[in-house]
Amino acid sequence: MSDVETLEETLLARFGEQFKVPAAIGGRDELLRMASRGVHRHFLARDIEEDLLRLLCACALSAPSKSDLQQGDILIVRDRGKRARIAAMLPGMPWAGEAPVFLVFLANGRRLPQLAQLRGKPFANDHFDLLFNATVDAAIVLATFLRAADAVGLGCCPISVIRDRAGELSELLDLPEKVIPVAGLCVGWPAEEGAITPRLSLATTVHRDRFADADLADQLEAYDRRRAAQRPYREQRAVERFGRKEFYGWSEDKARQYAVAQRADFGAFVRAKGFHLD
Questions:
Q1: Helix/strand/coil for 126
Q2: Range(s) of the domain holding residue 209
Q3: pLDDT band at 23 (very low <50, low <70, confident <90, very high)
Q4: What number of other Cβ atoms are within 10 A of residue 61's Cβ?
Q5: From CA 276, how far away is CA 125, in angstroms rounded?
Q6: Contacts by 143-149, CB closer than 8 A, 24 or more apart
Q7: Are 109 and 128 within 8 A, CB to CB?
Q8: 90 and 161 in contact (C-beta within 8 Å)?
Q9: Torsion sign, CA atoms 167, 171, 172, 178
Q10: The overall pTM is greater than 0.90
Q11: 262, 105, 77: which is closest to 181 by C-alpha?
């Protein structure tokens, strides 16, 4: 099978629809890595060299940054005691303690006010946009790190649930005012191939000229059926509250997941870290 055909087959598996890959375009190997990437939660007992980790961080931090403000930081957690404490915070995710490297991607809203003070200028943007810009920067750095890690054969698993324990993590890692954790990332040499997780169709998530979701119910039903055929859920969430469904799809699972408040105290944590949300 040619690389063009492989990419088309991969996108079909991911989105359930046909894509035409122009045969003349370059970068098909990179596109295939992006289209076929999967989460890795099991890793070989092999460390990642510091030189390689430093290189990946440099590539990740080469990502675009809003107005060149550079508000996304990476914190590498190597200390065994701190790794053990982070693993204890995430008992349902043993890979957080087993991965050779654990990174925390930070939204740094601290550096700009410091810069203003150092240069003797007023800082007139201590409002919600400071947090938003820093968080977006951190997310772009995280996504770029994933791409760099994939390129060298590493596997990764993002960990957003660290925000459930944001206060404890902030204290553990000595995060100062206006610096907050956005996500963790397990990094290591994969012990198995990552599987493709089907995504919502482009008809649902790509809009032209105006936002449109009038067909959402039908699109979700089609996605639920397609996803269940490839990767059915092994268990149903909150059966004691919602009962057991004969057909249990993605939309039912996510509706049940968000029927319970998650991180309702995160806004209070962010405010306590010195961010203003007005």
A1: coil
A2: 202-257
A3: confident
A4: 17
A5: 10
A6: 143/63, 144/59, 144/60, 144/61, 144/62, 144/63, 145/56, 145/57, 145/59, 145/60, 145/74, 145/103, 145/105, 145/185, 146/37, 146/185, 147/33, 147/34, 148/55, 148/56, 148/59, 148/60, 149/56, 149/187
A7: no
A8: yes
A9: positive
A10: yes
A11: 105
Which residues are 104's β-sheet partners?
75, 184
**Which residues sit opposite 179 in a β-bridge?**
108
- Tens digits of residue pLDDT in 77-102: 999 999 999 999 999 999 999 999 99
Other Cβ atoms within 10 Å of 192 Cβ, number: 12
Residue 241 included in any domain: yes
* Domain co-membership, 102 together with 231: no
Number of domains making up the chain: 3
264 located within any domain = no
Q: Is the dihedral of CA 10, 11, 15, 16 positive or negative?
A: negative
The 10s digit of each residue's pLDDT in 28-64 is 999 999 999 999 999 999 999 999 999 999 999 999 9
Same domain (yes/no): 132, 248: no
E strand or H helix at 150, and its extent? helix 128-151
SS3 239: helix
Q: Are 277 and 270 in contact (CB under 8 A)?
A: yes
Give Rg (Cα) of the chain. 21
| Gap between the Cα atoms of 156 and 43, Å rounded | 9
Q: How many residues does the chain have?
A: 278
